[in-house]
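hiii so um. not sure if this is the right channel but i have a protein structure encoded as tokens and i wanna go backwards to a sequence. like what aa goes where. can anyone help
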């Protein structure tokens, strides 16, 4: 048995989707989604590391590259995603081989911040192999919002309007306040992010806030996920403004049920009610490896599902 792992400059998206589905035991990946995710952003293509056994791919890991965070200088940020090994070939040696290749990439980027929000089964593994530390635990909140609130003044567009001037104008006319402790998005980056295949996103603007949402089932019921809330002012946005923009999202998606996951200091209060610890479906614990010269994990001002591979 010959195991090896290295950067794959031209990943086979169809083969990768099949391997991922076998690894997770259910349909999880689509080739068109992987093509968009890994190669859709021309300026920041993902780093894909393929694990081979006797020359045939049996697993992989990917690193998505994002804009820098001002608080840590000019460093890029990278998110670890889509780490899996075909169940038939899973072994401690396979995992070690894959992580050794990942560690090499991490070491080659000493000024970059690497993050991951793992599921319960994977929590702690990055700490063992890549020296990741635990950062913030994200809030998981649920709630209902009356669609009739704040009916006047909320602008909404769908992600299927990528060629529509209305969506472009909504994003470009918003003055994003760049926080030193957050991933800072541009209109172009957001437009690409919400072009995710087979997902229906909404973009909503009201007062000082711009929200990104998408349809999501909540315990089998139709609802929507609040992926991000951006503010164009320095002081926290009042609760009534947040309620108005959420009501606009409820009207847009046709359901009052919502989920929020993240942290956001730009809001006077987070939406909904906190899910008790024993009912949380996932730890939603941010793990990170800081750039050289930083001893403690970064405390994000805003870190929401738009910033990692969930939203």
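sure thing!! here u go:
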């Amino acid at each position: 048995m010959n195991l090896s792992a290295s950067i794959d400059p031209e990943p086979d998206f169809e083969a990768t989707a099949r391997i991922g589905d076998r690894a997770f035991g259910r349909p999880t990946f689509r080739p068109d989604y992987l093509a968009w995710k890994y190669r859709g952003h021309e300026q920041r293509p993902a780093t894909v590391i393929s694990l081979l056994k006797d020359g045939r791919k049996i697993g992989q890991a990917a690193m998505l590259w994002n804009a820098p965070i001002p608080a840590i200088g000019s460093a890029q940020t990278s998110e670890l995603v889509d780490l899996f090994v075909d169940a038939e070939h899973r072994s401690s040696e396979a995992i070690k081989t894959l992580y050794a290749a990942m560690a090499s990439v991490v070491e080659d980027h000493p000024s970059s911040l690497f993050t991951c929000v793992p599921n319960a089964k994977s929590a702690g593994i990055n700490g063992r192999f890549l020296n990741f530390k635990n950062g913030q635990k994200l809030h998981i909140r649920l709630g209902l919002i009356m669609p009739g609130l704040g009916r006047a003044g909320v602008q909404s567009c769908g992600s299927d309007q990528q060629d529509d001037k209305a969506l472009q104008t909504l994003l470009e006319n918003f003055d994003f306040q760049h926080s030193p402790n957050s991933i800072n998005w541009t209109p172009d980056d957001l437009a690409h992010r919400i072009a995710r295949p087979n997902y229906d996103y909404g973009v909503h603007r009201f007062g000082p806030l711009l929200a990104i949402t998408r349809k999501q089932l909540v315990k089998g019921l139709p609802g929507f996920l609040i992926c991000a809330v951006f503010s164009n002012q320095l002081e926290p946005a009042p609760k009534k403004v947040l309620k108005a923009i959420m009501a606009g999202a409820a009207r847009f998606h046709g359901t009052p049920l919502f989920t929020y996951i993240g942290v956001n200091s730009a809001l006077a209060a987070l939406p909904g009610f906190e899910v008790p610890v024993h009912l949380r479906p996932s730890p939603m614990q941010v793990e990170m490896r800081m750039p050289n010269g930083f001893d403690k994990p970064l405390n994000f001002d805003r870190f929401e599902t738009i910033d990692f591979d969930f939203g």
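oh and The radius of gyration is 20 Å.
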